[in-house]
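User: Quick one: structure for sequence A, then sequence B.

Assistant: Sequence A:
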Amino acid sequence: MGGIRINYLVDYPEYIPQLAQWLFEEWGAILGEKTPEARTKKLNAHMNRDQLPVAWVAHANEQPLGTAALRVHDLEGREDLTPWLGGVFVGAQFRRRGIGEALCATVENAARSRGIQTLYLFTLDKQTWYSRRGWTVLAPCVWHERPGDIMSKRLQTA
């Protein structure tokens, strides 16, 4: 699949309904969301370029493939840690093509360009995937009664 591009979500608002649907299907039950509208609202809050939260969308052939965000906080009770890579998601039919990795790299570069030295994330089950990309487990955490891990990554400045 050629021609994959990653841009600020604010420049592609037409992709929000599909992204909201995917995110709702993935995490809505855990979060107790009843409809994708809650996700739409959250994505709308990420329609920024110069202030956090900021979301990006990976897309090709006029369809969204995935998304990721840079957020001030992403885990209740750990407001001491900031900022966070969050909301990383690639549509099921587009996985295993490096899109998630490209989205993460985009967020990391954006953080680096803002002078951020350490980035955080939490994951329920993708620890191995992230550790292969330079992330290390910082501490266990519980998210909506599910066990996961907080991970961190030192961003090397050029």
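Sequence B:
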Amino acid sequence: MATWEELAQEENAGEYKQENAYTPIPEGTRVLQTLEEIKFQSFQGSNHETLNLKWRIDGPEDFKGRVYYQTIYINGSDPTGHYYDKDKQDKNIADARRMVLAIDYHAGKHIAALKREPTEAELQKYLIAAQMMAVLGVTKAGKQTVRGISGVDPDLLPKKASAPKTPANQVGFDDSDDIPFN
């Protein structure tokens, strides 16, 4: 790994472009996913708040193991942001909260049962490890986004090996005796 001193000695044209091999999952792809992290993020000097989620894809095989991040603007768009539209805030807030409640629905409906805004600890307790389906999309900026949430598609669940069958002639345990042990 290069040190600060080594990097400072390199010729630099004052430009930087991040290079990575990340390609978003195509628009409209249905995936089985598990929620790994969820946390609130607030911004200093603003009442703007988001929920940041980390999802791991469990299927289909083409995308298994991939991780993507979702940001839910639970208080609408940032008023200081480029995309802020005052007329759309009520709808955006309602849509964001519906998304959280849809995730909660497939995780056991614990957040809805609170009938109040959940704490971060409650979100983590009730939603982490929840598994559900998502329809993914790609934003104009090329970022992964969630277009929809639904229940688990059994066809995407891993097939479990069946238990070995006991042969008819194998001697088994007979628990019908009533012999007490002292």
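The chain has a mean pLDDT of 83. The helical segments are 4-9, 89-105, 110-114, 120-127.

User: Thanks, that's what I needed.
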